């Protein structure tokens, strides 16, 4: 597996080598795709954004998108259960789990495909052979209510301070792949003692980042011990008093790889849809949804800093792939 470690300098300045040497995209047979008539998409893309993408594609091509949307870990479980049962249902897979993407490449489950605009995607978040390419980047730090006289933490380790007792909420790594990346990284950086102290601080565990957002906006908790900026951005736009905190010890930028599934029922529609997701319409949609696009030529969400101005934590996806089951087990032991 190619290690997809996202580094600050590279994210800020990445220029595709393919663009420099001349890039010829793989062809898409749109007529054949339209004849197939539909594409089945398994994804952890935020539900409202996923539905917009599906609707845009249907309106542009006439090809129906059958959407299965859940948390990244849940999507992968369903996909792998079907594969192990020798059933290929999904045509396209998009989940925020670069570690799993590497494992699936090893199982020869993805079609190499480098469509139009592949050369505009940051090098660090795509497989050079085209087995997967990032659809978007998930920027994750902490999120705090700003109308409750809360002391704003600066570092991840600040969250263990007893003054935050019964004020914290966090997602479950068994449900969302993004949280698995964070738990795998922070447990190595600060030890499991970090999570044991969060448990002692009476942290609330919810399914995914949407539930984290809802818990904050309802006022049930005041501080997301890790929160997705895209949800906080939408909440701010809706008038909620929440602030994304980019910790001094580093913020996460987790890619959401998209792949075309080998042997899928609608291979041409799958290629057409995968190409569509890194095209202008979708990539320019993301900033208005509070999401950082995967393409280096797209501006950040309005009001947000460019990635090059955010200190990022490198993620060892190879190690997390190896440790995934153990990480979930240890987390569940602490928070059961």
Structure characterization notes:
- The protein is α/β, with parallel strands linked by helices.
- 39% of the residues lie in helices and 17% in strands.
- The chain is built from 13 helices and ten strands.
- It has helices spanning 8-13, 17-21, 30-36, 47-61, 72-84, 98-106, 177-190, 193-200, 209-217, 229-237, 267-277, 280-285, 317-335; strands spanning 38-43, 64-69, 92-94, 133-145, 168-171, 204-206, 223-228, 242-245, 252-260, 292-293.
- Strands 1, 2, 3, 4, 5, 6, 7, 8, 9 and 10 form a ten-stranded mixed β-sheet that branches.
- β1 (38-43), α4 (47-61) and β2 form a beta-alpha-beta unit.
- α6 (98-106) crosses α13 (317-335).
- The longest helix is centred in the C-terminal third of the chain and has 19 residues, at 317-335.
- The protein is globular, with a radius of gyration of 19 Å.
Radius of gyration: 19 Å
Assign a percent range to the helix content.
Answer: 25-40%
* Rough outline: globular
Low-confidence stretches are 1-20
Tell me the total number of β-strands: 10
Distance from first to last alpha carbon: 33 Å
The main sheet comes to: 10 strands, mixed
Determine the number of helices (DSSP H or I, runs of at least 4 residues): 13
Average predicted local confidence, pLDDT? 92
What attributes characterize this protein structure?
336 residues, alpha/beta, 10-stranded mixed beta sheet, 13 helices, 10 strands, 39% helix, 17% strand, globular, disordered N terminus
Topology:
Layout: H1 8-13, H2 17-21, H3 30-36, E1 38-43, H4 47-61, E2 64-69, H5 72-84, E3 92-94, H6 98-106, E4 133-145, E5 168-171, H7 177-190, H8 193-200, E6 204-206, H9 209-217, E7 223-228, H10 229-237, E8 242-245, E9 252-260, H11 267-277, H12 280-285, E10 292-293, H13 317-335
Parallel strand pairs: 1-2, 1-3, 5-6, 5-7
Antiparallel strand pairs: 3-9, 4-7, 4-8, 4-9, 4-10
């Amino acid at each position: 597996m190619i290690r997809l470690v996202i580094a600050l300098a590279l994210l800020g300045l990445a220029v595709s080598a393919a663009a420099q040497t001349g890039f010829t995209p793989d062809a898409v047979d749109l007529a054949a795709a339209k004849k197939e008539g539909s594409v089945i998409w398994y994804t952890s893309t935020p539900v409202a954004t996923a539905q917009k993408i599906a609707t845009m594609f249907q309106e542009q091509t006439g090809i129906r998108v059958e959407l299965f949307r859940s948390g990244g870990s849940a999507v992968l479980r369903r996909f792998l259960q079907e594969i192990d049962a020798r059933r290929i249902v999904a045509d396209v897979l998009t989940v925020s789990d670069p570690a799993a993407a590497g494992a699936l490449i090893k199982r020869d489950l993805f079609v190499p495909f480098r469509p139009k605009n592949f050369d505009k995607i940051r090098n660090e978040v795509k497989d050079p052979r085209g087995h997967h390419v990032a659809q978007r980047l998930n920027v994750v730090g902490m999120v705090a209510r700003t109308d409750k006289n809360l002391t704003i933490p600066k570092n991840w380790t600040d969250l263990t301070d007893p003054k935050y007792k019964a004020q914290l909420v966090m997602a479950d790594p068994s449900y969302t792949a993004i949280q698995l990346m964070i738990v795998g990284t922070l447990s190595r950086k600060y030890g499991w003692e970090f999570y044991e102290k969060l448990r002692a601080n009476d942290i609330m565990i919810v399914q995914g980042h949407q539930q984290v957002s809802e818990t904050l906006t309802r006022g049930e908790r005041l501080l997301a011990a890790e929160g997705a900026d895209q949800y906080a951005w939408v909440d701010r736009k809706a008038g909620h008093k929440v602030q994304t905190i980019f910790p001094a010890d580093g913020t996460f930028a987790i890619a959401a790889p998209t792949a075309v599934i080998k042997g899928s029922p609608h291979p041409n529609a799958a290629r057409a849809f995968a190409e569509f997701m890194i095209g202008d319409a979708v990539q320019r949609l993301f900033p208005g949804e509070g999401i950082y696009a995967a393409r280096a030529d797209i501006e950040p969400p309005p009001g947000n800093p460019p990635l090059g101005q955010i200190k990022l934590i490198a993620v060892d996806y190879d190690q997390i792939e190896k440790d995934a089951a153990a990480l979930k087990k240890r987390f569940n032991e602490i928070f059961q």
